[in-house]
Write a structure and sequence with these properties.
alpha/beta, 9 helices
Length: 305
Protein backbone atom coordinates (compact mmCIF):
# COMPACT_ATOMS: atom_id res chain seq x y z
CA UNK A 1 0.00 0.00 0.00
CA UNK A 2 1.36 3.40 -1.00
CA UNK A 3 2.29 5.84 1.76
CA UNK A 4 0.09 8.95 2.01
CA UNK A 5 1.18 12.42 3.23
CA UNK A 6 -0.56 11.90 6.58
CA UNK A 7 1.52 8.76 7.23
CA UNK A 8 4.87 10.53 7.00
CA UNK A 9 6.32 12.36 9.99
CA UNK A 10 7.31 16.00 9.38
CA UNK A 11 10.96 15.35 10.15
CA UNK A 12 11.25 12.78 7.37
CA UNK A 13 10.80 15.34 4.59
CA UNK A 14 13.88 17.13 3.25
CA UNK A 15 13.91 20.91 3.42
CA UNK A 16 13.59 22.74 0.09
CA UNK A 17 16.82 23.42 -1.75
CA UNK A 18 17.53 26.68 -3.57
CA UNK A 19 19.14 26.52 -6.99
CA UNK A 20 19.98 28.87 -9.83
CA UNK A 21 20.25 28.79 -13.60
CA UNK A 22 20.98 31.27 -16.36
CA UNK A 23 18.46 32.82 -18.69
CA UNK A 24 19.33 32.99 -22.40
CA UNK A 25 20.66 36.55 -21.89
CA UNK A 26 22.86 35.53 -18.95
CA UNK A 27 20.64 36.82 -16.11
CA UNK A 28 20.87 34.64 -12.99
CA UNK A 29 17.50 33.16 -12.04
CA UNK A 30 16.51 31.21 -8.94
CA UNK A 31 14.13 28.55 -7.78
CA UNK A 32 13.30 26.09 -5.01
CA UNK A 33 13.07 22.32 -5.15
CA UNK A 34 11.36 19.93 -2.75
CA UNK A 35 12.76 16.44 -3.21
CA UNK A 36 10.63 13.36 -2.38
CA UNK A 37 10.56 12.04 1.16
CA UNK A 38 13.06 9.19 1.49
CA UNK A 39 10.66 6.82 3.24
CA UNK A 40 7.83 7.01 0.71
CA UNK A 41 7.11 3.59 -0.73
CA UNK A 42 7.29 4.23 -4.46
CA UNK A 43 4.89 2.59 -6.85
CA UNK A 44 6.15 0.81 -9.98
CA UNK A 45 5.66 4.12 -11.81
CA UNK A 46 7.20 6.95 -9.70
CA UNK A 47 5.01 10.02 -9.06
CA UNK A 48 5.36 12.62 -11.79
CA UNK A 49 7.62 15.65 -11.12
CA UNK A 50 5.71 18.91 -10.70
CA UNK A 51 6.82 22.33 -11.94
CA UNK A 52 5.18 25.34 -10.23
CA UNK A 53 4.97 28.81 -11.77
CA UNK A 54 3.79 31.76 -9.63
CA UNK A 55 1.67 34.82 -10.31
CA UNK A 56 2.74 38.21 -11.65
CA UNK A 57 4.44 39.66 -8.56
CA UNK A 58 4.63 36.45 -6.57
CA UNK A 59 7.46 34.05 -5.83
CA UNK A 60 8.28 30.43 -5.09
CA UNK A 61 7.31 30.68 -1.41
CA UNK A 62 3.68 30.65 -2.56
CA UNK A 63 4.05 26.92 -3.18
CA UNK A 64 5.61 25.89 0.15
CA UNK A 65 2.45 24.28 1.56
CA UNK A 66 1.32 22.40 -1.55
CA UNK A 67 4.93 21.40 -2.29
CA UNK A 68 5.33 19.86 1.17
CA UNK A 69 2.10 17.93 0.70
CA UNK A 70 3.11 16.59 -2.71
CA UNK A 71 6.67 15.95 -1.52
CA UNK A 72 5.27 13.68 1.17
CA UNK A 73 3.40 11.75 -1.51
CA UNK A 74 6.64 11.11 -3.40
CA UNK A 75 6.64 13.93 -5.95
CA UNK A 76 9.63 16.06 -6.79
CA UNK A 77 8.35 19.66 -6.80
CA UNK A 78 10.22 22.54 -8.42
CA UNK A 79 9.11 26.18 -8.27
CA UNK A 80 10.67 28.87 -10.45
CA UNK A 81 11.04 32.59 -9.78
CA UNK A 82 10.68 34.84 -12.81
CA UNK A 83 13.29 37.53 -13.40
CA UNK A 84 12.77 40.45 -11.04
CA UNK A 85 11.02 38.33 -8.41
CA UNK A 86 12.02 36.26 -5.40
CA UNK A 87 15.41 34.59 -5.77
CA UNK A 88 16.01 35.86 -9.31
CA UNK A 89 18.03 38.90 -10.35
CA UNK A 90 16.28 42.08 -11.40
CA UNK A 91 16.47 43.10 -15.05
CA UNK A 92 17.75 46.58 -15.86
CA UNK A 93 15.10 46.84 -18.61
CA UNK A 94 11.54 46.48 -17.31
CA UNK A 95 10.37 45.60 -20.82
CA UNK A 96 11.95 42.18 -20.28
CA UNK A 97 9.36 41.45 -17.58
CA UNK A 98 7.25 40.05 -20.40
CA UNK A 99 5.73 36.64 -21.08
CA UNK A 100 7.87 35.82 -24.16
CA UNK A 101 11.11 36.55 -22.27
CA UNK A 102 9.97 34.61 -19.20
CA UNK A 103 8.95 31.69 -21.40
CA UNK A 104 12.54 31.37 -22.61
CA UNK A 105 13.77 31.53 -19.00
CA UNK A 106 11.36 28.72 -18.05
CA UNK A 107 12.51 26.60 -21.00
CA UNK A 108 16.12 27.09 -19.91
CA UNK A 109 15.22 25.92 -16.39
CA UNK A 110 13.44 22.80 -17.63
CA UNK A 111 16.45 21.86 -19.72
CA UNK A 112 18.84 22.65 -16.86
CA UNK A 113 16.82 20.38 -14.56
CA UNK A 114 16.63 17.61 -17.15
CA UNK A 115 12.86 17.21 -16.87
CA UNK A 116 11.75 14.72 -19.49
CA UNK A 117 8.15 14.50 -18.28
CA UNK A 118 6.37 16.76 -15.81
CA UNK A 119 3.06 18.22 -14.68
CA UNK A 120 2.70 21.99 -14.48
CA UNK A 121 0.93 23.94 -11.74
CA UNK A 122 0.46 27.56 -12.81
CA UNK A 123 -1.01 30.26 -10.59
CA UNK A 124 -2.41 33.24 -12.51
CA UNK A 125 0.51 34.37 -14.74
CA UNK A 126 1.95 30.88 -14.33
CA UNK A 127 -1.20 29.53 -15.95
CA UNK A 128 -0.76 31.91 -18.89
CA UNK A 129 2.68 30.38 -19.34
CA UNK A 130 1.07 26.92 -19.26
CA UNK A 131 -1.20 27.92 -22.15
CA UNK A 132 1.71 29.02 -24.33
CA UNK A 133 3.92 26.09 -23.27
CA UNK A 134 1.52 23.60 -24.86
CA UNK A 135 3.05 24.54 -28.22
CA UNK A 136 6.57 23.83 -26.99
CA UNK A 137 5.86 20.74 -24.86
CA UNK A 138 3.54 18.02 -26.21
CA UNK A 139 1.41 15.85 -23.94
CA UNK A 140 4.08 13.18 -23.65
CA UNK A 141 6.33 15.78 -21.98
CA UNK A 142 4.08 18.33 -20.24
CA UNK A 143 1.75 15.52 -19.27
CA UNK A 144 -0.85 17.45 -17.26
CA UNK A 145 -1.70 21.02 -16.25
CA UNK A 146 -3.28 22.60 -13.18
CA UNK A 147 -4.57 26.13 -13.77
CA UNK A 148 -4.93 28.06 -10.52
CA UNK A 149 -7.52 30.80 -11.06
CA UNK A 150 -6.66 31.65 -14.65
CA UNK A 151 -8.13 30.90 -18.04
CA UNK A 152 -8.19 31.97 -21.69
CA UNK A 153 -10.32 35.02 -20.85
CA UNK A 154 -9.12 37.47 -18.19
CA UNK A 155 -11.58 39.87 -16.58
CA UNK A 156 -10.28 43.42 -17.06
CA UNK A 157 -11.75 44.53 -13.71
CA UNK A 158 -9.43 42.12 -11.93
CA UNK A 159 -6.38 43.28 -13.88
CA UNK A 160 -7.17 46.93 -13.15
CA UNK A 161 -7.49 46.14 -9.44
CA UNK A 162 -4.01 44.59 -9.47
CA UNK A 163 -2.55 47.45 -11.52
CA UNK A 164 -3.91 50.03 -9.06
CA UNK A 165 -1.61 48.89 -6.24
CA UNK A 166 1.26 47.01 -7.91
CA UNK A 167 4.62 48.53 -6.95
CA UNK A 168 3.09 51.62 -5.28
CA UNK A 169 4.35 50.83 -1.76
CA UNK A 170 7.23 48.42 -1.32
CA UNK A 171 8.45 48.90 2.28
CA UNK A 172 6.65 48.37 5.59
CA UNK A 173 7.68 48.66 9.22
CA UNK A 174 6.61 45.09 10.07
CA UNK A 175 4.83 42.02 8.76
CA UNK A 176 1.84 43.05 10.88
CA UNK A 177 1.62 46.37 9.02
CA UNK A 178 1.84 44.59 5.67
CA UNK A 179 -0.77 42.03 6.75
CA UNK A 180 -3.14 44.83 7.74
CA UNK A 181 -2.56 46.52 4.40
CA UNK A 182 -3.38 43.33 2.53
CA UNK A 183 -6.52 42.90 4.58
CA UNK A 184 -7.71 46.35 3.49
CA UNK A 185 -6.97 45.89 -0.20
CA UNK A 186 -7.76 42.18 -0.61
CA UNK A 187 -10.38 41.55 2.05
CA UNK A 188 -13.15 41.20 -0.53
CA UNK A 189 -11.12 38.54 -2.33
CA UNK A 190 -10.39 36.53 0.81
CA UNK A 191 -13.30 36.99 3.23
CA UNK A 192 -12.43 33.77 5.08
CA UNK A 193 -8.93 34.96 6.09
CA UNK A 194 -8.12 35.63 9.74
CA UNK A 195 -5.35 38.01 10.84
CA UNK A 196 -2.89 35.08 11.21
CA UNK A 197 -3.75 34.11 7.62
CA UNK A 198 -2.96 37.62 6.43
CA UNK A 199 0.35 37.56 8.29
CA UNK A 200 1.26 34.23 6.70
CA UNK A 201 0.29 35.71 3.33
CA UNK A 202 2.55 38.70 4.01
CA UNK A 203 5.42 36.33 4.83
CA UNK A 204 5.12 34.75 1.41
CA UNK A 205 5.32 38.05 -0.46
CA UNK A 206 7.96 39.92 1.54
CA UNK A 207 11.28 39.56 3.36
CA UNK A 208 13.06 41.39 6.18
CA UNK A 209 15.84 43.64 4.93
CA UNK A 210 17.81 46.18 6.95
CA UNK A 211 15.08 46.50 9.56
CA UNK A 212 12.28 46.86 7.00
CA UNK A 213 9.79 44.44 5.48
CA UNK A 214 10.13 44.68 1.69
CA UNK A 215 8.02 43.07 -1.03
CA UNK A 216 10.06 40.58 -3.07
CA UNK A 217 9.77 41.98 -6.58
CA UNK A 218 11.12 44.80 -8.70
CA UNK A 219 8.64 47.72 -8.51
CA UNK A 220 9.38 48.39 -12.19
CA UNK A 221 7.18 45.37 -12.85
CA UNK A 222 4.23 47.78 -12.55
CA UNK A 223 5.23 49.33 -15.88
CA UNK A 224 3.84 46.23 -17.60
CA UNK A 225 0.31 47.16 -16.50
CA UNK A 226 0.62 50.96 -16.54
CA UNK A 227 -1.16 51.41 -19.88
CA UNK A 228 -4.23 49.33 -18.98
CA UNK A 229 -7.67 50.92 -18.85
CA UNK A 230 -11.28 49.89 -19.39
CA UNK A 231 -10.88 50.20 -23.16
CA UNK A 232 -7.95 47.77 -23.37
CA UNK A 233 -9.07 44.72 -25.37
CA UNK A 234 -8.66 41.35 -23.68
CA UNK A 235 -6.32 39.01 -25.56
CA UNK A 236 -7.93 36.01 -27.25
CA UNK A 237 -6.21 33.02 -25.64
CA UNK A 238 -8.79 30.40 -26.57
CA UNK A 239 -6.66 28.97 -29.43
CA UNK A 240 -3.87 28.39 -26.90
CA UNK A 241 -6.29 26.73 -24.49
CA UNK A 242 -7.41 24.35 -27.24
CA UNK A 243 -3.82 23.02 -27.32
CA UNK A 244 -4.29 21.78 -23.73
CA UNK A 245 -7.34 19.67 -24.49
CA UNK A 246 -5.14 16.69 -25.38
CA UNK A 247 -3.93 16.19 -21.79
CA UNK A 248 -5.42 15.99 -18.27
CA UNK A 249 -6.42 19.37 -16.84
CA UNK A 250 -7.48 20.53 -13.39
CA UNK A 251 -9.07 23.98 -13.14
CA UNK A 252 -9.08 25.69 -9.74
CA UNK A 253 -11.19 28.80 -9.18
CA UNK A 254 -11.50 30.97 -6.10
CA UNK A 255 -15.20 31.49 -5.42
CA UNK A 256 -14.65 35.25 -5.10
CA UNK A 257 -12.25 35.61 -8.03
CA UNK A 258 -12.53 38.78 -10.11
CA UNK A 259 -10.04 37.51 -12.71
CA UNK A 260 -11.53 34.13 -13.69
CA UNK A 261 -15.30 34.14 -14.15
CA UNK A 262 -17.78 31.28 -13.85
CA UNK A 263 -18.72 31.87 -17.50
CA UNK A 264 -15.12 31.37 -18.61
CA UNK A 265 -14.86 28.17 -16.56
CA UNK A 266 -18.07 26.86 -18.13
CA UNK A 267 -16.68 27.38 -21.63
CA UNK A 268 -13.36 25.79 -20.61
CA UNK A 269 -15.19 22.68 -19.42
CA UNK A 270 -17.27 22.53 -22.61
CA UNK A 271 -14.09 22.58 -24.71
CA UNK A 272 -12.33 20.01 -22.50
CA UNK A 273 -14.99 17.52 -21.27
CA UNK A 274 -12.39 15.47 -19.40
CA UNK A 275 -11.14 18.43 -17.37
CA UNK A 276 -11.65 18.45 -13.61
CA UNK A 277 -12.98 21.54 -11.88
CA UNK A 278 -12.79 22.66 -8.26
CA UNK A 279 -14.16 25.81 -6.65
CA UNK A 280 -12.32 26.98 -3.54
CA UNK A 281 -14.72 28.69 -1.10
CA UNK A 282 -13.82 31.80 0.87
CA UNK A 283 -11.01 32.78 -1.51
CA UNK A 284 -10.61 34.90 -4.62
CA UNK A 285 -7.63 35.61 -6.83
CA UNK A 286 -5.55 33.63 -6.49
CA UNK A 287 -6.22 30.67 -4.15
CA UNK A 288 -3.31 30.13 -1.77
CA UNK A 289 -3.36 26.29 -1.85
CA UNK A 290 -2.93 26.03 1.93
CA UNK A 291 -6.00 24.01 2.85
CA UNK A 292 -5.90 20.22 2.89
CA UNK A 293 -9.04 19.79 0.77
CA UNK A 294 -7.43 21.60 -2.16
CA UNK A 295 -4.09 19.87 -1.63
CA UNK A 296 -5.79 16.48 -1.64
CA UNK A 297 -7.64 17.32 -4.88
CA UNK A 298 -4.34 18.26 -6.55
CA UNK A 299 -2.61 15.10 -5.26
CA UNK A 300 -5.47 12.87 -6.45
CA UNK A 301 -5.42 14.52 -9.86
CA UNK A 302 -1.68 13.89 -10.18
CA UNK A 303 -2.05 10.32 -8.91
CA UNK A 304 -4.58 9.65 -11.69
CA UNK A 305 -1.79 10.16 -14.24
Amino acid sequence: MKTTPDDIPEYAMPEPEEFSWKGPDGLTLGGRQWLPAQNVQQASCPPIPVVCLPGLSRNTRDFSDIARYLQAAGHSVTALDYRGRGLSEWDTDWRNYALPVEEKDIAAAIEYLGLERFALLGTSRGGLHALSMANRYPANRMAAVILNDIGPHIEMSGLLRIAATLGRKMEYSSFDELATGFRKTLGAQFPSFSQPDWKKFAGQLASSRAGKVVLDFDPALACQLAALDNTTPAPDLWPLYEKLTDRPLLILRGAHSDLLSEETCKRMLEMHPAARYKIIPGQGHAPVLWEEDTQRAIAEFLQSL
